[in-house]
């Protein structure tokens, strides 16, 4: 049964944490500092960190976050410049010795090559089978065309051998069994692969830096009981429409139809949140409800413009989702869902009420 596998409760995001990181920069070029700030912000925004502030102070960068996202991966996105390049093993180093099992991971045991992050257009993260047959995440290197031939010739020289991807001060060993591509092993965990994807593809930080200080801050959280909020919304909607119904200002039949469509849209939205277990910030739930009520009313009252309204709302959602930051980015993804739900509620309510009316008119 569905109830045996689905948790019928909202996935409310309440575990906020807040921290300030101090980054000591190894350089003072204003252009490089601005680019570093931009890339750090893009990393955190891509990961879905709700509130990010980055500012420069006394030659250092201070990064302040307030979020419900994983502290482990948020810290990784901030702490690591993630400056990477391709390296090769030194001939004089024994990488198979049991006495030094860290040898394959130490940058000092590798020689630099001319291939750094600038030759890669992006690193495409995908799931592929490993030699044991299990699925794991790999980063497939996509090169700029002008470097493609040289890099493939380089890989051919090391076919059936190990090379390495040096990331900051450590190396990820990579075995070359196909000289036409570079597949970097990332591990089986989805969230870890997501953060590494962001680190590889959010831009190349021009400055090295170290995190010199971390301070926990007071958390800005929003404590709202969503059950009480839901009840209050339904009661308020019914009260408003009943008041309008009995005052006789508008057509009574149309008022009842609109009220039914609005209540159905809210019920469908809550059902969607429960079945999909989509993460929801409780104060955004109130905003979502208000937007859904307004959108459903507009679609219901403007039958001739429904397509335009729906396309407009969905387009705004896409813009917010892909160009917005923080909570606006989250609200954009919600607006796309709300557009579909409101349209479905209006069409379903019209069909259902027409069937009921036809039945009682017999």
From TrEMBL:
Chain ranges passing through the membrane: 226-243, 255-272, 278-295, 307-328, 334-353
Keywords from the named record: Membrane, Transmembrane, Transmembrane helix
Keyword flag Transmembrane helix: yes
Protein name, per record: Transmembrane(S)protein
Species, as recorded: candidate division WS6 bacterium 34_10
Lineage: Bacteria, Candidatus Dojkabacteria
